[in-house]
Amino acid sequence: MNKNHLFTALVTGGSSGIGKAIALKLAEEKYKVVNADVIEPAYTHCNIRYISCDVSKSSDVTNLFTSVKNDLGTLGILVLNAGKGNHELLAEGDPEKWQDVVNLNIMGTLRCIRAFVPQMLENKKGDVVIISSVSSGKAHTYGGVYSASKAAIDMISETLRIETEPHIRVTTVKPGTAATGFFKNSGRKDYYPDASLTAENIAEDVWYAINKPPGTSINTIVTRPTGQLF
């Protein structure tokens, strides 16, 4: 990969679902993409490099930053997508599983911001896209911990926008239920099984946001299946 390439992106959690769709979209648009994920992807693309990384671990993020800096230089695009959910009642669930959600969804996002945004600020340009959820604004049974983590992500994203303006554009993308493996992986299999929203739809949202003219920002995008109530 060309260290001086002007179009370099990092996507966390890019091996499957929404992250995969975003990584492939950027790669197809000729970006050099780093996919940072704990799971090796089942797909390949000449413009995508996979780096094994658990963003909830400080040492992994440090190694990721060093590798990206040495091979590619400063990022132009940082997409913070890695996350997980759970499906438990607050009075019955396992706090250790909740801690895993907090460590990945919140601390993983914060660790990547702390690692990569300073160089963007030095260059006075860059885009940060944070994948949140419509659940961030809606309490619902069995989803308290996940929703709370995404509400925190929304606050982090808005704070980052304020702290880095006018040089960094920060966009929060809040999908509704998409036809990915998310609900199956979180333990819930019966929620919008035929969702019309796809991972590729969200990738197009990301592409739209980062292609606004200089000096123009899309700060929040909410995309739902038309039939979803919240």
Blueprint of the fold:
Blueprint: E1 8-12, H1 17-28, E2 32-37, E3 48-52, H2 58-72, E4 77-80, H3 95-123, E5 127-131, H4 144-164, E6 169-175, H5 182-186, H6 199-210, E7 220-223
Parallel strand pairs: 1-2, 1-4, 2-3, 4-5, 5-6, 6-7
Helix pairs in contact: 1-6, 2-3, 3-4
Task: Outline the structure in words.
This protein has 230 residues and is an alpha/beta fold. It has a single domain, classed as 3-Layer(aba) Sandwich (Rossmann fold), CATH 3.40.50.720. Helices cover 41% and strands 16% of the residues. It has helices at 17-28, 58-72, 95-123, 144-164, 182-186, 199-210, and strands at residues 8-12, 32-37, 48-52, 77-80, 127-131, 169-175, 220-223. A 7-stranded parallel sheet has the order 3-2-1-4-5-6-7, with helices on both faces. β4 (77-80), α3 and β5 (127-131) form a beta-alpha-beta unit. The longest helix is centred in the middle third of the chain and has 29 residues, at 95-123.
Strand content: 15-25%
Kindly provide the name of the CATH class.
Alpha Beta
Roughly how many Å apart are the termini? 42 Å
Q: What is the string of SSEs from the N terminus onward?
A: EHEEHEHEHEHHE
**Cα radius of gyration in angstroms:** 17 Å
Point out poorly predicted stretches: 1-6, 186-190
- The shape, in one word, is globular
What is the average per-residue confidence, as pLDDT, rounded to a whole number?
A: 90
The total tally of domains equals: 1
Give a short overview:
The chain is α/β, with parallel strands linked by helices and 230 residues long. It is built from six helices and seven strands.
